[in-house]
Design brief:
Elements (H helix, E strand, L loop, with lengths): L8 H8 L3 H8 L7 H14 L15 E6 L5 H17 L2 E6 L13 H9 L4 E5 L5 H10 L3 E4 L10 E5 L1 H14 L5 E5 L5 H16 L9 E3 L4 H12 L7 E4 L2 H13 L9 E6 L2 H5 L5 E4 L2 H16 L8 E4 L2 E3 L9
Parallel strand pairs: 1-2, 1-3, 3-4, 4-5, 5-11, 6-7, 6-8, 8-9, 9-10
Antiparallel strand pairs: 10-12
Helix pairs in contact: 1-2, 1-3, 4-12, 5-6, 7-8, 9-10
Amino acid sequence: MGNRSRATLTEVAEHAGVSKATASKVLNGRPGVAEATRKAVREAIAALEYVPTTGPRETPSPQTIHVVFDTILNMYAVYVLDGIISGGRELGVEVVTSSLESETPGHNDPMGADRVKEIAAQGAAGLVVVTAQLTSAEMDACEQLGLPLVVIDPANPLDERVTSLGATNWAGGVQATRHLLDLGHTRIGFAGGPAGSLPARERLHGYREALESAGIELDPALMGSGSFYAETGAALTDRMLDLDEPPTAIFAASDSIAVGVIRTAHRRGLNVPGDLSVVGFDDTYNAMWVEPPLTTVKQPLRQMGRVAARTVLDLAAGKVPDSHHVQLATSLVVRESTAPPR
């Protein structure tokens, strides 16, 4: 663009052949505009590289919340989405979802600043990002565009510009491990999620804290990380059970990992919980229907979704959050997958 001055909304309207009021309606996602007209305005925005004035846009009645998931191929995402949709319904807004899932297994595409600009140009009242990693460029784009941003279970540390929501992952890790310690276990394995995931690291720190507080020396052979999927639980369980002194219990950083732990124990002829106790994390549908039913740390996933919907609309209305990082309490749900060691 060289030294050309910033395009104005008036210029966008003239380029699209509509009134400034109509261009504003399209920018802010308001009803009453034909789809062809919306397309013309969006093309004008792109052609002129129009960027709304920095700061919250005037959206007294926001219509849409855009939610971007790192992946939707797990029960965690389903529970969170259910909460966001429920919260949006209560607040009178619609929810649009997308995912960063790519065609390459195990690899998700980055969101990118251009995608943030597209979402803003479509008139979203705010953006909710779930478990995806955010770059400085993406956070800068939200700030420059005045697009309110809330992150659920951020994958990486965020600065004070970003409001985030999560569960008390560290406390949940302590709860799970203490439960196994109270049953009499001392050889307790940890099957963790991605090494770069902030929630996964917090659960690991809770596990370590509980063991250290009980005077039990940490054994690196009993700790491992991978993904939040059952394959990780299976691989880590096989490795731990091959040790000269295998664990009598395993704390898995998600219910899906725990399913992999239990299936592997059964495949190797072990009884759960007679030979191996297992604790998960999340309390999703998997926990109730695996055999035996899973003892797990309950995350308030639906509540997290509802709070995120309300928070992003509060930000759109110009309200300042009481805290930039909100943590909702976890609780231990004891079922049939844990028992004292033999």
